Amino acid sequence: MERDKKQQGMSRREFLKLSASLGAGIAIGASGMKAIEHAVRSDAPAATGAGTGVDPEAADERIPLYGEHQAGIVTPQQTYMYLASFRITAADRAAVIRLFRDWTRFADLAAAGGEMKSGGNPQLPPSDTGETLDLPAAKLTATFGFGPSLFLQDGKDRYGLASKLPRYLQDIPRMPRDNLDPLLCGGDVCVQVCAEDQQVAFHAIRNFIRLSTGSAAVNWLQEGFISGGSGGQTPRNLFGFKDGTANRLHETPAGYDSVVWAGDGEPDWMKGGTYMAYRKVRMLLEVWDRSSLADQEDTFGRHKESGAAYGRQGEFDEVDPSRLPDRSHVRLAKETNQLIHRRGYSYTDGVDPRTGNVNAGLLFVSYQRNPEAQLLPMLKLMQSRDALNEYAVHIASGLFACPGGLREGRYIGQSLLES
Ligand SMILES: C=CC1=C(C)c2cc3[nH]c(cc4nc(cc5[nH]c(cc1n2)c(C)c5CCC(=O)O)C(CCC(=O)O)=C4C)c(C)c3C=C
Ligand SMILES: [Fe+2]
């Protein structure tokens, strides 16, 4: 996508000049990557205006890493997402802590639009991969979640964390229509990176992977996008339907408390946290494209162009489930009487060379405080009766517990690893 980089805020070169003048930055040790000494504070006041060389709009482009909750959960959806799953290979808890510290420092730096700073020795590889020089922070967020296997792997309590397992953390049970690829499921840690610039997002995920060398290995990496559009419209999925409309029902602080943020009965480290559910759902575009508009609309119980539910005029008008087809996707969701916060992205992945069919679909991501009560009944009901099943196949799955937000100076997962 062609974007006017200048319009987007401070470039990384400018950022480096600024961070140098503030005495901050990241220095890299002889290993080239691992010894990150300082992270630039992402919440440092932006030095903007005359003489600074910094675009005043820069501040708008940064989403701080720090806060009561992790960013990237109820943050308005950025255009691009990478989702990576890691298996932790670290020998002991101390090594896990070192990894999470490094990741946190880099996440802070990336959210601020910075680069890792090399020690100036041309005989060593550059510390940073460099593809975001001149690019702004682009509203980058990095969101971390822990899978069940971090706590207990094949009955082994590798890092002494088993007693801190969150209340609802377990792999999503196998569903009757699942066609899951085990290589694309689960993981010890999941990192969701979102940004308004795909290269900025990729740079972050790539450097999370680099920083993990020796302590973790990537299991899988997914990339997604949503339709841009001006004026905050609901993005359309690859079936051409507005997808995310019902989030409006809970998008208030009180709504987030009742739908998203983990509650009583959870270990302390989950305070302000949530559960991230992931399903990779392949959408059978060729079958869909041959179906009539009436069949397409009956599948959801909403009109394609306006997004309005059957019997209604506007996208956000209240849904009357009795007016929707029995097996329609929205009617089934309503039958469960539950809300979840969806934050999905479309994906495309070339064509299947055997059939010539396009590989594409939805990286379904949802956040909820209690996946057992909110998500699983919905998933079960949909798998047994959803009209959408004719056009969609679930091929990957994961559930991760996302700790609460971070205070400056602390690292992601600290309250889990040091309590
Ligand atoms: C189990 C959870 C869900 C999965 C998996 C899922 C897959 C999926 N959904 C669409 C497209 C749409 N979904 C819509 C609404 C909707 N979907 C879920 C849950 C899952 N979807 C919920 C809870 C809701 C909201 C229902 C409500 O309360 O009104 C819609 C309608 C517009 C909207 O509200 O977003 C569309 C369109 C696809 C294509 C898909 C898998 C491929
Ligand atoms: Fe849906």
Task: Give your account of this protein's structure.
The protein has 419 residues and is an alpha+beta fold. Helix content is 22%, strand content 17%. The chain has helices at 12-21, 93-111, 148-151, 198-211, 253-259, 285-289, 293-300, 329-335, 371-374, 376-385, 414-417, and strands at residues 80-88, 141-146, 189-195, 216-225, 274-283, 341-342, 345-351, 358-368, 392-402. Strands 5, 6, 7, 8 and 9 form a five-stranded antiparallel sheet that branches. Helix 2 packs antiparallel against helix 4 and helix 8 crosses helix 10 (376-385). Bound molecules: the ligand C=CC1=C(C)c2cc3[nH]c(cc4nc(cc5[nH]c(cc1n2)c(C)c5CCC(=O)O)C(CCC(=O)O)=C4C)c(C)c3C=C and fe (ii) ion.
Number of helices: 11
Structural class: alpha+beta
Strand fraction band?
15-25%
Poorly predicted runs: 1-10, 14-56
Q: What's the helical proportion of residues?
A: 10-25%
Largest sheet: 5 strands, antiparallel
Number of strands: 9
Question: Main attributes?
Answer:
Alpha-Beta Plaits; four-stranded antiparallel beta sheet; Deferrochelatase; binds ligand L6N33NVT; 419 residues; 17% strand; binds fe (ii) ion; disordered N terminus; EC 1.11.1.-; oxidoreductase; 9 strands; alpha+beta; lyase; metal-binding
What does this entry show, briefly?
The chain is of the alpha+beta class and 419 residues long. Helices cover 22% and strands 17% of the residues. Strands 5, 6, 7, 8 and 9 form a five-stranded antiparallel β-sheet that branches. Strands 2-3-1-4 form a four-stranded antiparallel β-sheet.
